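Homework-ish question, so no full write-ups if that breaks the rules, but can someone show me the predicted structure for this set?
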Amino acid sequence: MIEEISLPDSFLEQIDPRVKLIIVFLFSIVMAASYRFTTLITALFISILILLTGKVPLKEIFKRLIPVNTLIILLWLILPFSVKGDPVFFMGPFTATKAGVIYTAQISIKSNAMMLILIAVIASTRIFTIGHALHKLGIPTKLVQLFFFTFRYIHVIYREYLRLLNAMKIRGFEPRTNLHTYKTFAYLVGMLLVKSSDRAKRVHNAMLCRGFNGRFYSLSNFSITKKDLFFLFLMTSFIIFLGVIEWAGITW
Amino acid sequence: MGRNNLVINISDLCYSYPGGKKVLDNLDLELCKGQKLGLIGPNGGGKTTLFHIIMGLLKPSSGCIEIFGQPVINEKDFKKIRQKIGFLFQDSDDQLFSPTVLEDVTFGPLNLGKGKNEAIKTAKKTLKFLGLSGFEDRVTYKLSGGEKRLVSLATVLAMEPEILLLDEPTTGLDDATRTRIMDLLAKLPITMIMISHEINFLEKITDSIINLEKGKLLIDKEFYIHTHPHTHHYGSHLHRREV
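A: Not a homework solution, just the prediction itself:
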């Protein structure tokens, strides 16, 4: 999810990242609050359209949809059987209800629509540009820095984890259901924590050596163009339109 | 080399780890302007600790440090001298924390109060000097080990330091990158202290090599007659406490 794909020359890539973030934010709020299938399906359709303009490879899209849909499969296994209502079908001792199936379908569509918009934005924007855009949008500096450092050091910690894991493997460690395994994993996690804390200290020292005084400077310049305004206007109108369908109860 | 040329003057420096182990034991060190000093010694001998003390990252138990003729005691003094001393860390992953190379290299100049454009200009100049033009937008964590070390060096050099402290700049690098870094360091007209276990390389770059062992600086005369003809120039600046 965090890995960026570079997509030069797409329409989305040229849009100001702040505009993109605002749109994702508004879209997600309206989606989260919508339940009508008309709204949800229109939104899903539009998010697919937007994603297509981003020229994101299909493989990448599916790869990124896997985690959220794994969760949704779990929901399909549980929710239809646990919501009260008219029975639709039976599976052994369990009864699926109409209300349950509808509810699960709503969740499936809205989460996929939100994910698709998010993928479109993330795939077309470099991670650090997103960080700077968040900063420009008034997100507190500390949170933005946290975002940057997480992005930077998650790989370092992951490599550290792999190294430790390999060190365990080459000495014949095989995870089993026993105390030895639990203890070993506890050591692994503990070691990672200690190492990360040490690393944090060293990074801070390195920053001090380069004159760090608590301030971060951003190199990015963002400027709103007519294209950005047009896109913002188009998308906000569409999101308002979605809201109108939802709350005015329009169907077609 | 008179006393006016002294850029670092350390006397009677002691440091013990919390817990009691003495790492530096009444150590004296004088470094003159333009000097390139090699520092060897066993692991855990206190070499990195000495660098950390010079940068003010660790507080010595006792002793006196003068840098550019001024005593440095508290954090405020060290903040000032950090702008003039560049410190290359052993592990480049500690040094590079920004998402892209350009952001990392401009970090120092921006902290020194330079404007954005000026910082970018300095960064690009430094990258060019190190043969890293075109690396500006590369993502730091995706660089190879050698590239990371070179970019780390760029982040330090972009601050235009007067003294460089290099902690094992070539450890873990392939021959080509090692030679590249060594050539660059030999070319730099900056005063430097360099920690390394590779005596051959130290010989090529530095004009004197000292051994930090058991908390003291040692110089073995026999050894230097054979390996390094220039040692005597600076030999007088090294306090021999033990041979």
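Now go work out the reasoning yourself. Hint: Residues 99 and 141 of chain B are 8 Å apart (CA to CA).
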